[in-house]
Design brief:
The chain has 252 residues and is an alpha+beta fold. The chain is built from four helices and eleven strands; from the N terminus they run H-E-E-E-E-E-E-E-E-E-E-E-H-H-H. The protein binds zinc ion. Zinc ion binds next to loops.
């Protein structure tokens, strides 16, 4: 029955099962293919660099989405990455309990935008924290296919990214928004005209740390926010009196 013919009665509808052979080739794109080839042949993660903003992308991509420029330079990652975030998976996608829980992490690399989501070596995933340094462990060359599964897992190297305070310390590319945020707070305090008094010296330490992109201690962070609150109150009070004064003066 032609597909456009209207069925008057339900029993006229028929169905049969068969299969339609389809053949297709999937292309990962120019940069995607280079990334996969590097993975397969050299056991390396390939990044691409934007000639203008110098951003390094992982996996390698053909264009910089910010500058709309072709990424001409391709660089393989040599050093270890670090755990940016992780979770422990206890069940499969059908909610069946796994024999062994799997630790899955977002792995990032210093100075590189993007990252890889992959498993952590089950034999050494205990004690994993944010910032734990990890290295990819590849399958043997002859069984690699150019897929991310060519990496068996990432194995902790025993080091922690950024030293002891790894959780709080993030690479500069990530730290920038935080720095900007803190700098804005400092600017706000400065612009408010709030008289700092004894807090001046503490604030100047904080100011310098922010300038150097160093992480603030919990006490410093809390002090900064306390000062910001007070400065805001001060500014509001100043503004209110400035707004009301002329009126009062005129009425007087
Ligand atoms: Zn760019």
């Amino acid at each position: 029955m032609p597909i456009l013919e209207r069925i008057e009665q339900q029993i006229q509808a028929r169905h049969w099962t068969d299969s339609i052979p389809l053949e297709y080739h999937y292309t990962a794109g120019v940069a995607g293919e280079e990334f996969r080839r590097e993975l397969k042949e050299n056991g390396k993660l390939l990044t691409s660099k934007c000639p203008k903003c110098k951003t390094n992308y992982l996996p390698a991509r053909m264009f910089c989405p910010t500058c709309f420029l072709e990424t001409t330079e391709k660089v393989s990652i040599t050093g270890s990455g670090y755990v940016y975030s992780f979770t422990i998976v206890a069940g499969d996608k059908s909610a069946n309990k796994l024999a062994e829980p799997t630790t899955v992490a977002m792995i990032k690399f210093e100075g590189v935008k993007g990252g890889i989501i992959h498993k952590i070596d089950p034999a050494s995933s205990a004690g994993l924290t944010l910032g734990t340094k990890v290295e990819p462990v590849f399958r043997e060359r002859k069984v690699r296919t150019g897929a991310l599964a060519d990496i068996l897992f990432f194995r902790p190297t025993g080091a922690v990214h950024g030293g002891r305070h790894s959780v709080a310390k993030v690479p500069s590319s990530q730290a920038e928004p935080e720095k900007t945020h803190l700098q804005n707070l400092i600017d706000m305090v400065d612009e408010s005209g709030y008289p700092l008094g004894e807090e001046e010296s503490d604030l100047s330490v904080i100011r310098e740390k922010i300038g150097r992109n160093e992480h603030l201690s919990r006490e410093e962070d809390s002090l900064l926010h306390k000062i910001v609150d007070r400065a805001r109150e001060w500014h509001r009070a100043e503004k209110t009196s400035a707004d009301t004064e002329p009126e009062n003066t005129m009425s007087g």
